[in-house]
Amino acid sequence: MRDDLQSLVQDIQSLRSPVRTFLNELYRRYLPLRDGRIADYIPELAKADPESFGISLVTVDGRTFNAGDSDRRFTIQSISKPFVYGLALEDWGRDYVLRRVGVEPTGEAFNSIVLDEESNRPYNPMVNAGAIATAGLIRGADPAERINRMLAMVRRFTGREALVDAAVFTSERTTGHRNRAIGHLMLNFGMVDSNVEEILDLYFQQCSVLVTSHDLAMMAATLANGGIHPVTGEQAIDPQYVRDLLSVMYTCGMYNFAGEWCHTIGVPAKSGVSGGVMAVVPGRMGIGIYSPALDNRGNSVRGIAVCTELSEQLNLHVFSPSSVRSPLARALEPVK
After folding, report:
1. Cα–Cα distance measured from residue 277 to residue 92, given in angstroms and rounded to the nearest whole number
2. Are the CB atoms for 258 and 269 separated by under 8 Å?
3. For 140-169, what is each residue's pLDDT tens digit?
4. Distance, first Cα to last Cα, the chain
5. The two domains 16-77+211-331 and 80-207 share their CATH topology (first three levels equal)
6. Rounded to 10 degrees, what is the CA torsion of 320, 325, 330, 333?
7. CATH assignment of 80-207?
8. From the CB of residue 7, how many other CB atoms can be counted at a distance below 10 Å?
9. How confident is the model at residue 255, as a pLDDT?
10. How far apart are CA 236 and CA 294, in angstroms?
11. CA distance 201 to 161
């Protein structure tokens, strides 16, 4: 009963919040933005509604603010990559994982068939090659145990059960010839084990996990909170590896837009071709946005526009003076 009352109080506070008003203004302002196109190289993704648009913020003390289609489910796609990377780090440790996957940005498209010429490693875990390699590091006696461990990890970050969209998984598996080529290239160089088809299946399934923009904001807020879920209090990841995830997200998470993102918006982030964008503001909040129309680099057009404005209005850039806080930014500071 007490939990229900606290939840009701939070809902009332949220309704009166200037933050909620601001997010609703952003939603109305950018809903008419219809640039970009929906990803169609995975047939199931082409069925997305281009009008779908959700914005979510979650603070490190568990306050939530949503606008638009924040409960619309879509597949996580590449936003799964930092989290699976974290699971691989927990399973093997930094030194071993670094022997299989580097941490250097590439400046290349996310699905480029390219490895480091000296080490034969994928450049980083945020591109497809690196993500396939980290999927291959997930421990388990068989494919069922590995997928269940991956889903359990997602649950710790979202706070609810994780499900795979079977139709999207099948679509990715059927059409994923480029990823299959990447997997076999890495098999040739010993960067993945011989069970490459099982590894690819796990990779396709991790990309097909269903989330909402609210889920993305909660996952980001968990990273912003040192790996502790802001609501459940559960430790979602060993805190020593949060730094690793945020570092590669900052330098590599937005692919060949990473430099401009760091310069303009300035927070660790990850995008996915289904239209999701997740951003982490360490010590402060997580951001989740969904809008499926993409630019030519594979990033959500509305997502980039909203994150640009959020960074400006809330002073989110990691190199901005911490003393400069608007009243709106101060409203999102953790409650002492």
Report:
1. 28
2. no
3. 999 999 999 999 999 999 999 999 999 999
4. 25
5. yes
6. 20
7. 3.40.710.10
8. 10
9. 82
10. 30
11. 20
Kind and range of the H or E element at 55? Answer: strand 54-59
Which residue, 216, 275, 271, is CA-closest to 249?
Answer: 271
Residue 137 pLDDT greater than 90, yes or no: yes
Domain residue ranges of the chain, discontinuous segments joined by +: 16-77+211-331, 80-207
Q: Which of 48-62, 102-116, 119-133, 307-321 has the highest mean pLDDT?
A: 48-62
Tokens of 115: 């490895």
Instruction: Report residue 302 CA to chain centroid gap.
Output: 16
Confidence category of residue 109, pLDDT binned at 50, 70, 90: low
What residues contact residue 274 under an 8 Å CB cut-off, 6+ apart?
39, 45, 48, 74, 75, 76, 77, 290, 292
The three-state secondary structure class of 212 is coil
Are 275 and 300 spatial neighbours (Cβ–Cβ below 8 Å)? Answer: yes
Query: pLDDT category, 324, cuts 50, 70, 90?
Result: low
Instruction: Please write the tens of the pLDDT for every residue from 63-72.
Output: 999 999 999 9
Catalytic residue list = 78, 81, 203, 255, 273
**Which amino acid appears at position 310 of this protein?**
L
Whole-model pTM: value is: 0.91
Chain-centroid distance of CA 100 in Å reads: 22
Q: State which H helix or E strand residue 277 sits in.
A: strand 276-281
CATH class of 16-77+211-331: alpha beta
Report the pLDDT value the prediction gives residue 336, as an integer from 0 to 100. 60
